[in-house]
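INFO  loader      accepted 1 record
INFO  loader      residues=122
INFO  predictor   begin
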Amino acid sequence: MTKAIILAMLVALSAACGAKKQSVDSAAVVEQQEANAGFSTGTVTTAMVGDGCPLVVTLDGVNNVFLIPIGLDERYKKNGLKLRFKYRPSRASIGECRKGQAAILEEISLPTPEGKKLLEDK
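INFO  predictor   done
INFO  writer      dumping tokens
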């Protein structure tokens, strides 16, 4: 009986360690959010379409952290648009995209006049 429990724990542990899913809770991300009252900034990009990611938001100041926005308003889905937002991880399906973490973006604003101009140019 104890051998079965130990074997089950080892299998579960090895499966958990084998997952290389990127986390949006890295120390750099948390530090950035704390410095900005919980807000992050990022840039909308379509550069990862070839990887199955039609739209991602790259976080500023943090290397290789990508958010896959869930339910993002159409007006914010512009390549190169800079956003300021709060976000929370989501368990929503992200389809074929494996480059980032699904997230719900909230309290979205445009931090730059250029971003506001891009948003107006529909």
